[in-house]
Amino acid sequence: MPSRVYLDWNATTPLRPEARAAMVAAFDLIGNPSSVHAEGRQARRLVEEARVTLAAAVGALPRNVIFTSAGTEANALALSPGLRGPSGGPVERLLVSAVEHASVLAGGRFPADKVGHIRVTRAGVVDLDHLRALLKDGPPALVSIMAANNETGALQPVAEAARIVHEAGGLLHIDAIQALGKIPFNINAVGADLATFSAHKIGGPKGIGALVVAEGLAGLEPVLRGGGQELNRRAGTENVAGIAGFGAAVKVALQAFPEDAKRMASLRDRLENGIRAIAGATIFSDDTERLPNTILFTAPGLKAETAVIGFDLEGIAVSSGSACSSGKVQPSHVLSAMGFDPAVAQGAVRLSLGWSTEPDDINRALEAWRKLGNTLLRD
């Protein structure tokens, strides 16, 4: 029986051997990283080495890296009404793009009546004119825009957004979880005030993320209180093994970039061409810059739930979009925000590639799609 083909890398990635080895070594340490004895210092060293690694990878200072339980917690920590912008006063409202991850759309610690939404274009790109208008119509705001969309792969104009936001006296948070290791990202180069990351999107373990803040950011209030860990910004004993695995994954991902990105883009383009050849398939956000590994597509009459099951039975793991909906196939809020009819959104299927995707994986995925297209789309 042939091995399965995994094309759901945007949901999660395989654990890199280097990350696994780092975690196994960390499991053998018995010390609490907050303890001052030798055992504690050994654990602390692993945490701080990973902090330095991630900081260097994204252009930040190590003291501005805060480890969390996941990207979702990092987003919740970032979306804080206490943050102070360039004017020195606190941000009083939150503006998020309509295609953000659910953990950002939830608004963090902002009251619901203080959260506004920024429109996106038909290509899934943030409407900067609408952002300007929203910023003019109210007090200083924290703005949250993802670097790259997890469903369509569309890249957002985050550097230009940062300039607009700062001119209005606000702050910019970037969800960079899908960006790290796939496209260049430097917190200073894009002008972000806060950025969030997740280990399991780059070959690290599940259950560990990070919030990185720009030097000088003030007013960040902890979500979890009761301990002085993470420089008093996130209480709770650090997940030493997870953090060590995160650091190891970052090292490998950055060493392999941009060669991995170039190879994935080539495979993605071949996969797209094959998908388009069947039943008039549509690729979303294909008229804008995208991640090198992501395809979101549909075809007339296609139902995502049926297609995902059909691919699975052919030995191909794909997704209907975001993997953060309790395993349920639901219409994409991203496509709805882009202006597509609900019937179209219900038929969207996502394929996402990774560093170990091979040409034969693409061949098998296209063969599966040919079978499914002939069966599912037949009148």
Automatic annotation (TrEMBL):
GO molecular function: cysteine desulfurase activity; iron-sulfur cluster binding; metal ion binding
Keywords noted in UniProt: Iron, Iron-sulfur, Metal-binding, Pyridoxal phosphate, Transferase
Catalytic activity field: (sulfur carrier)-H + L-cysteine = (sulfur carrier)-SH + L-alanine
Residue ranges constituting the Aminotransferase class V domain according to the UniProt record: 5-364
Cofactor (UniProt): pyridoxal 5'-phosphate
Pfam families documented for this protein: Aminotran_5 (PF00266)
InterPro entries reported for this sequence: Aminotrans_V_dom, Cysteine_dSase, PyrdxlP-dep_Trfase, PyrdxlP-dep_Trfase_major, PyrdxlP-dep_Trfase_small
Role noted for this protein: Catalyzes the removal of elemental sulfur atoms from cysteine to produce alanine. Seems to participate in the biosynthesis of the nitrogenase metalloclusters by providing the inorganic sulfur required for the Fe-S core formation.
Family from the record: Belongs to the class-V pyridoxal-phosphate-dependent aminotransferase family. NifS/IscS subfamily.
Protein name listed in UniProt: Cysteine desulfurase
Classification of source organism: Bacteria, Pseudomonadati, Pseudomonadota, Alphaproteobacteria, Hyphomicrobiales
Gene name for this UniProt entry: nifS
